[in-house]
Write a structure and sequence with these properties.
alpha/beta; 5-stranded parallel sheet; 9 helices; single chain; Rossmann fold; binds magnesium ion; 2 domains; binds adenosine-5'-diphosphate
């Protein structure tokens, strides 16, 4: 049903805030006056996934750790769950990815920015007694690399900021964002008859595979690199996609295809619950995958 992304400096109080949010939401759900469907509040964090703080010493170790968090997140997101991702989530691109995954499932989202000064974070880190303190250099490095969320970009908004001086979290605002906030409508304009899920899964696989082949063929046949290309598909569709001005490799396209298929497979399965809410025509899949390629292919 929704995704709450926590973001903040290391040792700024994110886990404490995540616990406060969880408690506040659970009490609302359990409240006798609450009439919605039964919801579960789940929390994900490095700690829960057994990811050591040491991964942040080294960006080669950090990448798979981030991947593990993302995979776990995709697994737990769903219509009956409020998922709180308690992590630094300090990379703008990563927050964007999380937002896209949530949107594919039509979840409401909100970002909670936990704010404390760098001095306080250092102080709290040095006082940690549970053996989970960051090495001072790692902390310094993470503070420097932190990419602040902004309410101006769609993937960070609505953005709810919680400063360290506040005793509690603004539970009303958070509740509102995740229960009443906008859910982006499915891609309008190409509304076709909804297909059965097995058909949709087959269409998802075959359409994306055909597009990968078509892009490779187009690239091999064309003298210039990149730009807007119209793809020749086995069916009558002629989807267009804008490619970067360089040679795009098959493995890049296949990786994007796998990501796209994984995210959408889940959406299709959930789509059977809210029948007809989504459009899984080949045309719609083709245009969504083209947009996905454009957004995710490195320039
Ligand atoms: P994070 O999850 O961001 O690493 P934690 O919630 O684990 O941060 O908090 C880190 C440390 O800072 C803990 O020891 C906690 O008790 C302390 N702390 C967190 N928020 C505050 C606050 N607002 N005031 C005082 N101490 C705090
Ligand atoms: Mg924490």
């Amino acid at each position: 049903m929704s995704l709450i992304t926590i973001s903040g400096f290391p040792c700024s109080g994110k886990t404490r805030r995540a616990e406060q949010i969880k408690a506040a939401l659970e009490s609302r759900i359990q409240d006798a006056g609450f009439e919605g469907t039964k919801l579960k509040v789940a929390v994900l964090s490095d700690h829960i996934l057994n990811i050591s703080r040491d991964v942040y010493k080294d960006s080669r170790a950090e990448k798979p750790a981030r991947g593990a968090l993302f995979t776990a997140m995709q697994r737990q997101m769903g219509q009956d769950t409020i998922l709180i991702v308690d992590g630094m989530n300090y990379i703008k691109g990563f927050r964007y990815q999380m937002y896209c995954a949530a949107r594919e499932l039509k979840l409401r989202v909100c970002t909670v920015y936990v704010v404390a000064t760098q001095e306080l974070c250092k102080e709290w880190n040095s006082k940690r007694e549970d053996g989970t303190a960051y090495a001072p250099e790692t902390l310094e490095n993470l503070l420097m690399r932190y990419e602040e969320p902004s309410s101006m970009v769609r993937w960070d908004s609505p953005l709810i900021t919680v400063p360290w001086v506040d005793d509690d979290v603004p539970a009303d605002d958070i509740w509102k964002a995740i229960t009443e906030g906008n859910v982006k409508p499915p891609n309008a304009g190409t509304q076709a008859v909804p297909k059965a899920p097995t058909d949709a899964l087959r269409a998802l696989e075959s359409t994306t595979a055909a597009m990968v082949s078509a892009i490779m063929a187009e690239q091999a046949a064309s003298a210039s690199l990149g730009g807007l290309v119209a793809l020749t598909m086995p069916n009558a569709l002629r989807p267009t996609v804008t490619l970067p001005p360089r040679n795009v490799t098959l493995s890049e396209l296949q990786r994007l295809k796998r990501q796209f298929v994984t995210v959408n497979k889940k959406a299709i399965t959930l789509g059977t619950i809210e029948k007809g809410a989504m459009d899984w025509s080949e045309e719609s899949i083709a245009s969504k995958y083209a947009a996905y390629i454009e957004e995710n292919l490195k320039p």
